[in-house]
Amino acid sequence: MSRIGRMPIPVPDNVKVEREGTTITIQGPRGAMTRTFRPEMTIALEDNTLTVTRPDDSRVNRSLHGLTRALLANMVEGVTQGFRKQLVINGVGYRATQQGKNLELQVGFSHPVIVEPPDGITLAIDRAGRIITVEGNDKELVGEVAAKIRAIRKPEPYKGKGIAYADEVIRRKAGKAGRVGGV
Questions:
Q1: Mean pLDDT for the chain?
Q2: In whole angstroms, what is the distance from residue 97 CA to residue 114 CA?
Q3: pLDDT tens digit string along 39-51?
């Protein structure tokens, strides 16, 4: 049995779970999230606890069991606490500025790069313009937006310039060894 799939999901008192067929809607203090799950998985709500069960031990159902439970747990956490990813900009002259809800990045190109966040995502910048915070209720969407911002200028291994996750370790390489002697 799936270790992740069999774990129950506690539902806080301020969260409301509605079920309509295979579609689950979870409402909390930060908003509401809706997702349709595969019909093979059985989702039950008893005593403020969500549980996911599978019909048999086939390979597909085993993988769906853990996935369904993880998606449900992320929905509950998203409507109560939300998710956040931080990106750090490194490099001389590299910076970000806020323009309304959009983000303008100066990262070594001849032009500024404008990032428009999708609905449900907020972008924030610290005073120095070096740390970008991506926040939202949907963990998948927060990760996708952060990955797209990082892909604009990935950190390079020689000087470490670029946009990296705050907890990312950039493996540095030694530069080109100079030639000793003459021509």
A1: 91
A2: 10
A3: 999 999 999 999 9
Q: Which amino acid is it at 160?
A: G
| Mean pLDDT value of segment 125-149 | 95
Sequence-distant contacts of 142-151: CB under 8 A, at least 24 apart: 142/83, 142/84, 142/85, 143/85, 145/117, 145/118, 145/121, 146/85, 146/87, 148/115, 149/87, 149/103, 149/105, 149/115, 150/87
Kind and range of the H or E run holding 160: none
In the predicted model, what is the mean pLDDT of residues 47-59?
Answer: 91
Residue 83's nearest CA partner among 145, 7, 137, 132 is 137
Domains (range + CATH), the chain = 9-80 (3.90.930.12), 83-165 (3.90.930.12)
**C-alpha to C-alpha distance for 5 and 91, rounded to whole angstroms:** 43
Q: Would you place residue 181 in the very low, low, confident or very high pLDDT band (cuts 50, 70, 90)?
A: low
